Amino acid sequence: MADGAVSRADEAVFRPVRAGNPFEETVERLLQAIKLGVVGPGERLPSERDLAARLNVSRVTLREAIRALTEAGYVESRRGRYGGTFVNSQLPKPRRLSAKQLTRELGAGVDDALVLRAALETGAAEAAASRELTDAEAEHLKHCLAETSSASLADYRRMDSRLHLAIAEVSGSPSLTSATADVRMRLNELLDAIPLLAVNLDHSNRQHEVIIEAILAGDPTAARLAMQEHLSGTAALLRGFLT
Questions:
Q1: 78: helix, coil or strand?
Q2: CATH of the domain at 180
Q3: Strands (E), the chain
Q4: How far apart are alpha carbons 168 and 182 in whole angstroms?
Q5: Distance from C-alpha of 128 to C-alpha of 5, rounded to nearest angstrom
Q6: Helix crossing, 198-216 with 220-242: angle to 10°?
């Protein structure tokens, strides 16, 4: 990925935690980076010193968070010249709840997350198409699109998340990127509760292509409408399975 794109993605997830729950929020930030594909399987997290500074936590707190994720099976620490903390090649399977359990747990939160996602991501697509993207930004979008289109069923959710986050990244708004990352984490639990349907994935991939084409063509209206159509399809599936 381009350095600029990496920087924006890092800023979105490795941002300072709020006072009060430094350990819990540090775990949340690290999981965001992993689950949204900002740091992929086999890749190394930023250095301990860098992460602690960017998250605005002590190195003791950061180490405790990394230890928790190690015990949960998300990362491993390696020693030596090329050591550090690496994301495991095989990630733990997401928690699987039935539609009835999720609906009972989340209640009105389902509609809230879907409305928020629609507002954020249609705006991100429109904003991205309104900008004159650099060559690196355009290549970043194409790369994420290609990875999503060729992803296995096991990797699809993560690569899909990464593509949607990439669109927010090139919108030019770090705040929008952060908000998109947060809402996607909320939605991933919902998405994990419904089956991956081959027909739907093919359709979704074609819609992704239309969205990226509109952004690269500099057509804000087409990008917004294409994203709106794409998100409405996902919302319909979720409501169908969760109600």
A1: strand
A2: 1.20.120.530
A3: 75-78, 84-87
A4: 12
A5: 13
A6: 160
In a domain, 93, yes or no: no
Predicted confidence at residue 234, as pLDDT, reads: 85
pTM: 0.80
Instruction: Say yes or no: 197 and 237 in one domain.
Output: yes
Distance CA 30, CA 131 (A): 30
DSSP element (H, E) containing 179 = helix 174-191
Q: Give how far Cα 46 sits from Cα of 50, 142, 220, Å.
A: 6, 25, 35
* Number of domains comprising the chain: 2
Q: Which structure tokens are listed for 25?
A: 């929020």
Tens digit of each residue's pLDDT (9 = 90 or more) over 54-111: 999 999 999 999 999 999 999 999 988 888 999 999 888 766 656 566 666 656 677 8
Single residue among 61, 87, 113 that ends a domain in this structure? 87
186-212: pLDDT as tens digits: 888 778 777 777 777 888 999 999 999
Burial zone of 130 (CB within 10 Å; 0-12 exposed, 13-18 middle, 19+ buried): middle
Dig out the tokens for 73 from the structure.
């099976």
Inside any domain, residue 94: no
